[in-house]
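In line with agreed milestones, the collection of sequences with tokenised folds has grown. One record among many is set out beneath this paragraph:
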Amino acid sequence: MSNLFSLHRAEYGVEPEVVVSAPGSVNLMGEHTDYNDGYVIQAAVVLHVEVALSLRKDNSLRFYAADLSERKRTTIANLKYKREDRWANYPKGVLYEIAQLGYPLKGLDMTIRGNIPQGIGLAASAALCTASAEGVNRLLDLDMTQMQVIQSSSLSEKAFIGLDTEITNHFITYVAKKGSAVFLDNRSLAYEYIPLQLDKLKILITDSNVPKGSIEQELKERKEECSQCVEYLNKKRPGNSLRDYSIDDLQNSMGLIPENMRRLCLHVVEENQRVLEARDFLKKGNLPAYGKLLSRSHESLRDNYEVSCPEIDWLVKRAAEIDGVYGSRLTGSGFGGCTITLIREDALPEYRERLEEYEHIFGFDATTILCEPADGVKVLFPYE
């Protein structure tokens, strides 16, 4: 944090008045269930975004991305999305959404830095938005509720920028607790903490470093098919989302629903069930059973929801061959990104040797991050 202080002082000539940190997050079970009113289990990771803020005497808004050495500026009266502002649209959107709630804004300077890799499914943008929202809340003494901070953070991406995202990552980033995963019901937003008793096991995140093209259209089509499937199922039994239907409902609808659509929705329905089972297994410390669910989840993401790719499948398959690996699967939206692997600590050297083979075959340097469940958003200064 001291370095962020000096960066902010060098940029603006004043000390920051508030510094806030927010972590990235990783999905431990429940992929593509969130936009179907389903369940997820996620945990914050030790990687984070830090935001430093200070008040100005005018109505200007200035943003400095220290990692990029880039600067953007606007005014309170001109809070609009601009494509050329790229990363600055996230804190701009937060300010806009806070104003929409009726809170008065003031001019401010903001310095941003972080170490969460972007675009690989570790919620880097949610961390930036959440840290910005809580930072503005504290700087301006707005006394916003937890949900107002989370919603302002989420709507920055969904409404202001226009991304097709859910509130899930922003929620987890805010409420996460060190040493625990969070079980979240995306319909009611009720949540509970699940202590992770890993003992000598580790949850290892592996970034495939597969270049991601534009996947928005692919994901949009899958979301639309999930909604269409609900319309078909409604002809037999009323429901608002796939959350309201069972595996039997889908099996009994063969012939009524196009087969590809039925397989997509079968993943969602079964994945919801896996989340509930994973919650019970993790509570009981039954890690081998949880590991098997990870592997089953990947098979479904690969074969039913079709969001995996050869590189990710290779990483999962080779991990399964190692003595000491309990399970592995794709995590994040798919088409590249990361895997999570439940692995014994003494098996890590062999696992990392396999990654050398991965680079020889695919030409990408896969990197690993140990997932140590962290706390959610923190006010680092002023000290509380």
